[in-house]
Specification:
Layout lengths: L1 H21 L4 H18 L6 H24 L5 H4 L5 E8 L4 E2 L4 E12 L2 E13 L10 E9 L4 E4 L2 E3 L1 H6 L3 E14 L5 H20 L4 H10 L7 H9 L10 H17 L4 H18 L4 H19 L5 H15 L3 H4 L1 H20 L12 H23 L1 E3 L2 H9 L2 H17 L4 H4 L1 H18 L5 E3 L8 H24 L1
Parallel strand pairs: 4-8
Antiparallel strand pairs: 1-3, 1-5, 2-3, 3-4, 5-8, 6-7, 9-10
Length: 501
């Protein structure tokens, strides 16, 4: 019964957020859902045998109303003073609240503007502004800046194949409603950010500098991507190569990478009989620290939260139910920021990949007896098929690229990822401590990273490496995923029945 209540609340709330994200409903619609919930409960009093089932339905309706209201409150409306200056050149002041996004020709600064200078007047404002500045602006997280530029609203843009990316709502999920283009920036203060987050970003930069001293590009860029989620050094061409063969998930700090780190720490602690409380505290610290370094990117937050639940369960001797943990974590993330559900591709892919891993891996692995279990190849194949199966419909909707050789590329690359992460850490430490001699220590990492890049380039060069599909409506995803998980439920029941015979 507890599982039914959990999934009813999670499903109801998520559906409410989904509906409010797509349609302009508000308090009246939420109130209607509450009234229907009350009516359902009252009608169930005539038949006491149905009270429990109707209570679950009522809870789902109440959660639905909560999802609608939470999203309605979270919708970014902008600031009247800033909106009145759209299309004009203005000067703003505010604090940089996220790590600067450095591109080849510019740097994008997420600024919480609090002061507007326009038409000879100074006005207090409160809105997120994306400031696009020269690449060598020298601005860091937590700096207070003054920026001058053209104030605009972000615009939707074409991603190819008649696909439109809703850039305004993608930025809105991070609290950004305006864009200041071609901006001149100057630092007028510092240390206005979260000191813990600032420390995490500082350590990340020190680590990346160590990698750059020890490894050449693009090996250094790949090492930064798989260990701390930095993919700027990889370059657009190589990033597209990894994307074409379905290996993008390894060049960002995904849940898979974080779990490798936590698992490795647990193995080391277990070997030296470290106290369970120390293992618990260290694992949680590592998970949160990685999430901080990525600026609380959805995949890392999801992985950190699920890892924390798993470690807590192990420390207290309780059973860890991964699907329930995923439901709780997903609900918590959507409550915190409901706009991620529809407008954050990273959140969608992370949740679907994890759900596929949990649901489909046990169904697929027993059917792969022809693959050797050595080097975890069977496990890698099962998890790769499971995750690719669940994320493929969404990826096809987002970019229309079908990576034909994804399974084979993942089999050859994922087996090397844990070792590549460990050797990259040694390379970075050598780069920080040994100067020009670091290249000697870093050579094993260089060789393994070169192998991973070579595999990606090999499969990307094959004929039909990525097949392009035409754009289609997002509503097609609803029946596709309904059928997919219904099939999983049917197969799980069949497997359970076979095991009980």
């Amino acid at each position: 019964m507890s599982a039914k209540i959990l999934y009813a609340v999670v499903g109801g709330f998520i559906l409410g957020v989904f509906v409010r994200s797509l349609f302009p409903v508000g308090f009246a619609f939420a109130g209607l859902a509450v009234l229907i919930a009350v009516a359902v409960l009252l009608l169930s009093l005539n038949d006491r045998s149905k009270v429990r089932s109707t209570a679950v339905v009522a809870l789902a309706l109440l959660a639905f109303a909560g999802g609608v209201l939470r999203t309605h409150i979270a919708v970014e409306t902008g600031d009247p003073a800033l909106s009145s200056q759209l299309g004009a050149k203005v000067v703003i002041e505010g604090a940089v609240f996220a790590e600067p996004d450095v591109r080849e020709a510019s740097v994008r600064l997420s600024v919480r503007a609090d002061t507007l200078f326009a038409q000879g007047a100074t006005t207090t404002v409160d809105a997120g502004v994306l400031v696009v500045a020269p690449v060598h602006a020298g601005i860091f997280y937590g700096d207070r800046i003054r920026a001058e530029g053209n104030l605009e609203l972000p615009e939707t843009f074409d991603t190819g194949g008649e696909r439109q990316f809703d850039y305004p709502l993608f930025l809105a999920k991070d609290g950004i409603a305006y864009e200041l283009s071609f901006a001149k920036v100057a630092r007028v203060g510092k240390n206005e950010g979260n000191p813990i987050k600032a420390s995490a970003i500082w350590l990340k930069q020190i680590y990346l500098e160590g990698l750059q001293r020890a490894l050449a590009e693009p090996q250094s860029g790949l090492a930064g991507g798989i260990t701390v989620g930095d993919k700027r050094g990889l370059g657009e061409e190589l990033s597209e190569t990894f994307r074409a063969v379905g290996l993008t998930h390894i060049i960002v700090l995904s849940g898979y990478n974080i779990m490798i780190v936590i698992y490795g720490i647990s193995r080391v602690f277990a070997r030296f009989s470290v106290r369970r409380s120390i293992q618990f505290g260290t694992s949680i610290f590592v998970a949160v620290f990685f999430a901080l370094m990525t600026g609380f990117a959805s995949a890392s937050v999801r992985a950190a939260a699920m890892a924390t639940i798993a470690v807590a369960g192990s420390a207290t001797g309780r059973m860890y139910l991964a699907l329930r943990a995923l439901a709780v974590v997903g609900l918590g993330m959507v409550i915190w920021n409901p706009l991620v559900l529809v407008y954050d591709p990273g959140f969608q892919l992370s949740i679907l990949a994890t759900a596929g891993l949990i649901v489909f891996t046990p169904l697929i692995a027993p059917r792969l007896t022809f693959i050797t279990p050595k080097f975890a190849l069977r496990e890698i194949a099962a998890t790769t098929i499971a995750t690719q199966l669940t994320v493929l419909p969404l990826l096809l909707y987002q970019n229309g690229q079908l990576p034909v050789y994804s399974l084979f590329a993942n089999l050859l690359v994922l087996v090397a990822v844990p070792w590549a992460m460990l050797l990259s850490l040694f390379a970075a430490l050598a780069g920080m401590a040994l100067g020009p001699f670091a290249v000697v220590v870093a050579f094993p990492a260089y060789a393994l990273l070169s192998y991973m890049i070579g595999v990606a380039q090999l499969f990307a060069a094959l004929p039909f490496a990525a097949v392009s599909l035409p754009a289609f409506s997002a509503w097609w995803l609803v029946p596709v995923y309904a059928l997919l998980f219904a099939a999983a439920l049917f197969l799980r029941r069949g497997m359970f029945m076979n095991n009980t015979d």
